[in-house]
């Protein structure tokens, strides 16, 4: 026959196990609800098509996460992307941080045509993909990726230029003035 102490000890372990399961369940639900997206900027990308008049304008270099240097030099400080209402663009003095096999690191200057289109997808924590809108430049300037997304809201959009894998957070950001 079991003593009352043995019965209470078993009950204690049973209650502890049930509490542990509840806490573990809560942690799993919280992790799923706050799951990561492709990029730290994913939540700021535009999933609705912006209007042409809201997008056109001058965008100036604001920040980058490609190199650890605190001295970006004169080039980065004066880098701009101009999107004209007539569908033409002008890239001026943009630093070349394309990496890879590109040995030409001279600042990028380019002109051409631009358009608004979906340029990628973001997967949320539930595995659902959402298209986001961005900028298509033709011809594409040297070392520019094709993934240039619109961030934030009109009329002060930002351009997010993604290099390499989105999870690596290697970006340049240009803000509209």
3D structure, described in words:
The chain is of the alpha+beta class. Helix content is 22%, strand content 35%. The chain has an eight-stranded antiparallel barrel. The longest helix has 30 residues, at 4-33. The protein is elongated, with a radius of gyration of 25 Å. The N and C termini lie far apart (83 Å). 22% of the residues are buried.
Question: Count of DSSP E strands?
Answer: 8
Query: What's the overall geometry?
Result: elongated
How large a portion of the residues is in β-strands, by DSSP E?
35-45%
Q: Work out the radius of gyration.
A: 25 Å
> Averaging pLDDT over every residue, what do you get?
76
Figure out the total of helices: 3
List keywords for this structure.
single chain, 177 residues, alpha+beta, 2 domains, eight-stranded antiparallel β-barrel, 3 helices, 8 strands
Topology readout:
Elements: H1 4-33, H2 52-55, E1 57-64, H3 73-77, E2 80-83, E3 88-94, E4 108-123, E5 129-138, E6 148-151, E7 158-163, E8 170-176
